[in-house]
Amino acid sequence: MDETADRSDGPAARPGLLVDRLPWLLRWAVLASLCLLVLTAGAYVLARIAIALAPLAIALAATLFLAGLLDPVTSRLRRHRFPPALAALVGVLLLLGVLVGASALVWRLSAGQFSDLVRQLDEGLHRTREFLVSTLPVSRRQLDQWAQRLVAGVRRSAPDPITGAATVAEAVGGVLLVLVLLFFLLKDGRPMWRWILARVPERARPTTAAAGRAGWRTLGAYTRGTMVIAAIDAAGIGLALVLLRVPLALPLAVITFLGGFVPIIGATVAGGVAVLVGLAARGPVTALLVLAAVIVVQQVEGNLLEPLIMKRQVCLHPVVVLLTVTAGTLLGGIVGAFVAVPVGAVVYSVVSTIAEYRGRAADVGRAGTAAGSPGPPSDGAEPRDGTGPAETSAPDEPAGPAEPQPPHG
């Protein structure tokens, strides 16, 4: 039987089904489209569930990111014979100390600038108004109308006191939930992972352990690398604002640091805020200098620092990053923009690891068949080069134990 007949009418072809009469390429396209639709629908359902449970989803995401950031600290403490509970407590207290200390420092250095900021903003807005009237075909009356509409829109969008109090209470409850979850994840993360692996079928357990380790490494590398890059961006732009005597340079540097956790879009928005403050407080010339400084810092970050720090930990193309951030923003707003890229990077790492292990198992199976062995190995068979999951635990990672057992307590 020739190749065309074999592809058109394979061994599974039955004359009673219309789909079996289609060419093999069309059948493959239909099957791939159905799989894509199922995966898309599943991702959409999960996203809607996460949105419906937004406070819990935000708390879990923040807990995982902070755990990936603090896990090297607690692992080192455990190597120095610290009990797991004490190591987790030290990590949480260290995080609180850094956050409270940084907030107190920003307030102490910036509180005295607020009194002069109102006067500088009035003068800067007047200069900006005169610059726009003399440069663009607009009149002072039109600018006043636009300003009134903007102020009215801001007032309408402002929440009422009851809603604001409820939002503050919800935020405080979310912060407390994150701290509690973070403590227990740092303390019992490894027993939890061993308990999960014990429920996985033995055939797929090595692959699951390897995929979990890869995802956890990617999350930790992304969190720590992004924090370093964001800190460098904030230091560079903050130094430029100080040299140009732009008011509130330190709070603007903090905004730049937070914006660095949203790839591509966050740094651009933070730089735009700095430019607007420079325009309102010091005039168009200072604003252009601030814009030049922001562009230089972002170019150095994107072309030098990010490839050097991230290396191969997060292997996502910039187009994929941009689409992921956009999708996360549309689904989850600001929080979705923060978590979109790390979630995409972790999913990519897990899927790549599973595909790599399955490919190695297939190679071992073909080699065994050629040598006359009874059959292919299991899904978690070790590769021929000795790099398989023979040892499924690592001292610095909460994933991948060799001997699964349920958690204690």
Explain what the structure shows.
The protein has 409 residues and is mostly helical. The protein has one domain. Helix content is 77%, strand content 0%. It is built from twelve helices and no strands. Helix 3 packs across helix 8 and helix 5 packs across helix 10. The chain starts with a helix and ends in a 39-residue tail after the last helix. The N terminus and C terminus are likely disordered.
User: End-to-end distance, in Å?
Assistant: 65 Å
Count of DSSP helices?
Answer: 12
Note the main sheet.
none
Structural class: mainly alpha
The whole-angstrom Rg is 28 Å
Mean pLDDT: 76
Q: Write the H/E string, N to C.
A: HHHHHHHHHHHH
Outline the secondary-structure elements:
Elements: H1 3-8, H2 24-52, H3 54-79, H4 84-110, H5 114-135, H6 140-157, H7 161-198, H8 205-243, H9 249-259, H10 265-282, H11 284-310, H12 318-370
Provide a compact summary of the structure.
The chain is mainly α and 409 residues long. It is built from twelve helices and no strands. Helix content is 77%, strand content 0%.
Task: Please tag this protein with its features.
single chain, 409 residues, mainly alpha, 12 helices, 77% helix, disordered N terminus, disordered C terminus
